[in-house]
Amino acid sequence: MVVIRLLPVILSFGLLAAHFSRADLFPLVIVSIAVLLLLFIRKAWVARTLQLMLLLGAFEWIRAMLGYIEVRKSIGDDWTRLAIILTVVALLTALSGLVFQGKSLKKRYKLGR
Questions:
Q1: Domain count, the chain
Q2: pLDDT digit string (tens) for 42-86?
Q3: How far apart are CA 6 and CA 20, in angstroms?
Q4: Crossing angle of helices 7-22 and 44-74, rounded to 10°
């Protein structure tokens, strides 16, 4: 059941790994995948670290979106759909950190009040 609760986190880091792979940033691909191993450590710092990394990941999606929009504008293509999709992905990534606020994951990662 824990895996289902952590699915948004796993999906978010998987999408970040794919994004970094497309940009040929293989050290960040490895980090995006390896950080999932932290999920096996039942400590509060793990949850907080992952929440921070997910927030940074959301900022990366926004940064990438702005760059892609500029490219689309420069070649005269429509960029609206791109902006909508990447905004949703950024929100999903940022909000994925909220799974650690659920009762079962708070208990699992020993998060205090």
A1: 1
A2: 999 999 999 999 999 999 999 999 999 999 999 999 999 999 999
A3: 21
A4: 40
Give the list of residues 6+ apart from residue 35 with CB closer than 8 angstroms, or none: 13, 50, 53
Beta carbons within 10 angstroms of residue 61's beta carbon: 23
Q: Is residue 112 part of a domain?
A: no
23 in any annotated domain: yes
Position 111 in a domain: no
Is residue 36 situated within a structural domain? yes
C-alpha dist (Å) from residue 19 to 22, 57, 92, 98 = 5, 10, 15, 22
CA pair distance 34, 5, nearest whole angstrom: 19
Pairwise CA distance, residues 1 & 71, whole Å: 42
Residue found by looking up tokens 């390896």 in the block: 34
Q: What's the start-to-end Cα distance of the chain, in Å?
A: 23
